């Protein structure tokens, strides 16, 4: 019997403060910390046992823009002077469930702010153990500790990487899924099977992305790459070759959502002008 859609409420918690006596590019340096927490029906914080690990995709000017955190409350601490938009990817203990990607605006308008998010799980009727985990009551997480979950890979300072500013390093090629046929530009699925990602349309979306968004896209592929995927990086040519048909539906769905989020952001930015 098909299961009802399950929704889990979470929030992204940001804390930031000025570091006295330190400036960069004329701006004060700040220490910031991001963590996650589940939210129960009473509005109280709770653990997230259904999440295996979290990846933070930072601005490409960070020395290590991709950070992996494996322990709840998935704390990431850093130091820098600028505001930026980041991606946060939640990977679940049930590996057949696609990762959930959310956008987070790191800003310095307030020393502490919390942003609610909703994760929707559907079509998981066969994953009984995962359903039980999602529905099981959890203890209050008000005793969240941050000292032991500090900086997954250690705090690093921002550093401009000249190679990333070169246009040739921002090109992505799909060698095996060229658009040889005419396809409906709004189609999210192929005509062969429902819920299949149309790799031709996804390749088109890649070409519509701004150069600054290609590096996080590459990081998404690298973070989820397996041995049976065709992914090749040509450092000399500054190109990244992908056979989209080898990536698997879960990763394709993540890339599709990433592209849609970027394109929606472009449209909103254009309307404001």
Automatic annotation (TrEMBL):
InterPro entries found in the cross-reference section: Sas5/TAF14 (IPR016665), YEAST_sf (IPR038704), YEATS (IPR005033), YEATS_dom (IPR055129)
Basic and acidic residues bias locations: 162-183
Taxonomic lineage of the native organism: Eukaryota, Fungi, Fungi incertae sedis, Mucoromycota, Mortierellomycotina
Gene3D superfamilies the UniProt entry points to: YEATS domain
Sorted UniProt keywords: Nucleus
Domain (YEATS) ranges: 1-137
Gene Ontology CC: one annotated term: nucleus
BP GO annotations: regulation of DNA-templated transcription
Region spans: Disordered: 135-195
Subcellular location as annotated: Nucleus
Name of this protein: YEATS domain-containing protein
Superkingdom field: Eukaryota
The organism of origin for this protein: Linnemannia exigua
A Pfam family matched in the record: YEATS
């Amino acid at each position: 019997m098909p299961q009802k859609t399950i929704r889990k409420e979470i929030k992204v918690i940001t804390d930031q403060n000025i570091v006295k006596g330190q400036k960069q590019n004329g701006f004060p340096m700040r220490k910031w910390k991001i963590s996650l927490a589940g939210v129960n029906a009473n509005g109280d914080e709770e653990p997230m046992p259904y999440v295996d690990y979290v990846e933070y995709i930072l601005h490409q000017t960070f020395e290590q823009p991709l950070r992996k955190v494996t322990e709840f409350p998935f704390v990431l601490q850093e130091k820098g002077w600028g505001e930026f938009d980041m991606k946060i990817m939640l990977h679940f203990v049930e590996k057949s469930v696609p990762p959930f990607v959310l956008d987070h605006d790191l800003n310095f308008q307030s020393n502490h702010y919390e942003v609610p998010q909703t994760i929707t799980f559907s079509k998981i009727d066969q994953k009984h153990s995962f359903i039980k985990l999602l529905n099981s009551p959890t203890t209050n997480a008000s005793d969240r500790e941050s000292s032991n979950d500090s900086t997954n890979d250690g705090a690093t300072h921002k550093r401009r990487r000249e190679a990333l500013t070169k246009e040739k390093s921002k090109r992505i090629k799909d060698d095996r899924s060229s658009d040889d046929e005419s396809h409906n530009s709004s189609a999210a699925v192929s005509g062969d099977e429902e819920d299949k990602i149309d790799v031709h349309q996804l390749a088109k979306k890649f070409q519509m992305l701004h150069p600054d968004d290609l590096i996080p896209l590459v990081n998404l592929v690298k973070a989820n790459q397996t041995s049976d995927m065709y992914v090749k990086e040509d450092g000399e040519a500054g190109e990244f070759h992908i056979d989209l048909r080898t990536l698997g539906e879960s990763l394709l769905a993540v890339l599709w959502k990433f592209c849609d989020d970027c394109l929606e952001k472009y449209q909103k930015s254009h309307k404001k002008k």
